[in-house]
Fold 5784_t:CDS:1.
Amino acid sequence: MADVSDPIIRETYDEVRDDRSEVSWLILQYENERSDKLILHAKGSGGLAQLADNLSEDQAAFAYCRVNVSNDELSVRTKFVFITWIGSRVKVMRKAKLSVHVSDVKRILQAYAIEITAYEKFDFNESEVLTKLRRAGGANYDRGSHNY
């Protein structure tokens, strides 16, 4: 069981969810290599690229990000992404625990449109994430016209 009891985790989650807040993402990381306690590692307002810059290859982490999705200037929707990060140098035991801990983290970071498991920084490609969000969001008006 992962320890997600630190109140700053919930407070930062609420910040990310708040459209008036500058904070658009957060990263939870393990307190140390042997611990099951998650702490707030970082938060920011720079989008997916900045979030990815705060992750390392020897780290396992969970992230949450607010993304604005639009098909045109009149239809901007706010969506949320839940991310499990497994860096390429994460040890086998930590990887095994992640699969169990993800459900504990989702009890706190609970509202999201899509879930991504990322192994490389290119998994944070903004255009690919936006495409996944549009697909998950229902109507997609940029597919062009159809003749019926």
